Amino acid sequence: MDQVAGSKPAAGANGGAGDKVAAARTAAESDVLFDPRGLVELDDEIPNVAEIDGDSAQFDAKDLTTRKTNAELRRLVYEKGLKDVTILNPSARHSLGVGILTRCKITFEGSLGYFGVGLIDGPEVQINGRVGWSVAENMMSGVVVIESNAGSLAGAALRGGDLVVKGQVGARTGIDQKGGTIIVMGDAGSMTGFMMQRGRQIICGDVGPGLGDSMYDGTIYVAGKVKSLGIDCVPGDWTEADTELIERKFRIYGLGEPPEFQKFVCGKKLYNYDSLEPSERKLVL
Fold first, then answer.
1. pTM of the prediction?
2. pLDDT tens digits for range 115-142
3. Which structural domains are found in the chain, ordered by start?
């Protein structure tokens, strides 16, 4: 008898094959360790591979993903309460060492990718290599020392602590900086200190165009040549406090004898603030 249009096939006709396909698909999906969109690593198991010696630990991240490397680091500093962790072979992976909110020492023996050690509050971080974009973004407190070069946006929105780059940096270093100190031993790219609000930058090399563009406050020291100043960035008067700051920072980080610097500050020509908000002003008028 022919099957009536729109009716379901008899049990055993195609149902068995369909069940097998569904079961195979479910089994395959259970083995997937990444979000199909590539956004999230689903395997959150902590590796537990570190070698612990007293208050310090060391582990090799060569075969670990970003999430597993960070999970192992957090286990050591939070669960184990260790104060000194060394990570070997970070392999320039992105977003390593982020969100550590306790006082400890972290050493990366190798280079980091983008967004390294961002959102930290307290750690002392030593990076024996290079870093990509946005290192130490939104750092609240602590120290980050980079032995080589850093990409663009180093110290973006920095709020406190010290970021020391012993090589060169890319464009927009310290963009939207709100505090802390950025020290660069080499050259800096364009728009350094863009929209800077507070804090200090000490640049020992040359600086590209647009230095301090649209800065609101803060101080930028430059030892080399400045290609051009940005809007509302002007030379400032040198004081004894400036000398003390630079000598102290160079002494703390063993940077040798500081060179002679120029000082740049906000000219405050863009300060056009009303005492009333727009909605309040309408009521008055």
1. 0.83
2. 999 999 999 999 999 999 999 999 999 9
3. 56-62+82-284 (2.160.20.60)
